[in-house]
Write a structure and sequence with these properties.
By secondary structure, the protein is an alpha/beta fold. Helix content is 41%, strand content 15%.
């Protein structure tokens, strides 16, 4: 039987990076002593008020079809929060509820891009951006970001990548995998470029609530950008709700209408009881996100303190999120060999960061997704593994 070339084209090195994570999950299921740091799924449970609201909604019978673009109260809550975070006022008509942030990026890609279009993405980038562009028949143009600059954007290189076929610029701030928070000056450069060349901008802001030192700025808040920006958000990281699949996209009302047509064919509305839980998450957001942010910052500091002095490793201190980029090129191993040998020798799974782009070659991505005791244990195992390499 023959399968669609379009779907076949979604495969690639970026999506195959999860093989080590699948192996680690299987080992964990088999009862082996492994520490899984290879995925951004927090170890703690969703806060109790959110869970209780979902249970109450289920028991009250909220199990029927729901509004395709999301219920009005939830969309309004997302709009209010966006206005608070960015200073840019939007209404419920500018919001669509999606099945997680990835679904939002995918749907926006299909609505914004056509076959032959080019979409510029700073690299390292989140793994599924390339697949989303390919699904629309578009071409992803990666713009490498120099690790010597701690993976901060090279605006000149971004500008040089624009061609007559360029349709959009996609980026994440804060960034997964690097933890970089784009400063306002860089966002202003992107805004000028987008307006000069009439480009769409997709700003993935899933980690916006988990910044540590640098202020998060939403590019939609800059003059002239609201009408050409799609802002992607999610509760997965900020509220420990990865498995609930609650995300959203904010943009011009006409674009949201187009995305609603896709949702009709693909999603047909997020379950009502989940939307009720999501609304509770927004109602309790200040306290929940403050706790999450403090926890991740503490875990970041714990890991950095224990690994940055290990000979052969170079740790980059992230400005946000739940990941750290660690340069392992000093160990003498290729990154993929480092990850698999570490896993087999010490039972710690980390991700080969070159999957996020060639500019991250030599780095691994490590997640702060287990409790402090397990993180300290993982750091000890990593240090022991690297020490063993040097004694060979």
């Amino acid at each position: 039987m023959k399968y669609s070339n379009r779907v076949e084209g979604l495969r690639g090195r970026r999506t195959s990076a999860w093989e080590i994570h699948r192996a680690a999950q299987q080992a964990l299921a088999n009862g082996e002593d492994v520490i899984v740091l290879s995925v951004g799924d927090p170890d703690f449970a969703t806060p109790a008020p959110i869970v209780e609201r979902a249970v109450e909604a289920l028991r009250s019978g909220d199990t029927h079809y729901s509004a395709i673009a999301g219920r009005e109260p939830l969309r309004a809550a997302i709009a209010r929060e966006h206005a608070r975070m960015s200073g840019h006022e939007v209404g419920a008509a500018n919001v669509i509820v999606t099945a997680g942030a990835q679904n939002g990026v995918f749907a926006a890609s299909l609505c914004l891009l056509e076959a032959g279009d080019e979409v510029i993405v700073p690299e390292p980038m989140y793994l599924t951006y390339e697949a989303c562009a390919r699904a629309a028949g578009a071409i992803l143009v990666a713009v490498p970001v120099d690790p010597a600059r701690a993976f901060h954007l090279d605006c000149e290189a971004l500008q040089a990548a624009v061609t007559p076929r360029t349709r959009a610029i996609f980026f994440a701030t804060p960034c997964n995998p690097t933890g970089v928070v784009m400063p306002r000056a860089d966002l202003e450069r992107i805004a000028r470029l987008a307006q000069q060349h009439d480009l769409w901008v997709l700003s993935d802001e899933v980690y916006a609530d988990l910044t540590f030192e640098r202020e998060h700025v939403s590019i939609a808040s800059l003059p002239g950008m609201a009408e050409r920006t799609v802002t992607i958000g999610s509760l997965s990281k900020s509220h420990a709700m990865a498995g609930w699949r609650v995300g959203w996209a904010i943009g011009p009302a006409e674009l949201i209408e187009h995305m609603g047509r896709l949702a009709l064919a693909m999603l047909y509305g997020l379950p009502g009881f989940i939307q009720q839980a999501a609304l509770t998450a927004f109602q309790n957001k200040a306290a929940i996100t403050a706790e999450m942010r403090g926890l991740y910052r503490h875990r970041r500091d714990v890991v950095f303190e224990r690994l940055h002095r290990v000979p052969g490793l170079r740790c980059l201190l992230p400005e946000a999120g739940m990941f750290m980029m660690v340069d392992v090129s000093g160990t003498g191993l290729e990154t993929v060999d480092f990850t698999w040998q570490l896993f087999r020798a010490q039972g710690v799974s980390v991700l080969d960061a070159s999957a996020f782009g060639d500019s991250a070659r030599g780095f691994v991505r490590l997640g702060f997704v287990v409790d402090e005791a397990r993180l300290i244990d993982a750091c000890k195992r990593i240090a022991a593994f690297v020490g063993g390499l040097q004694r060979r």
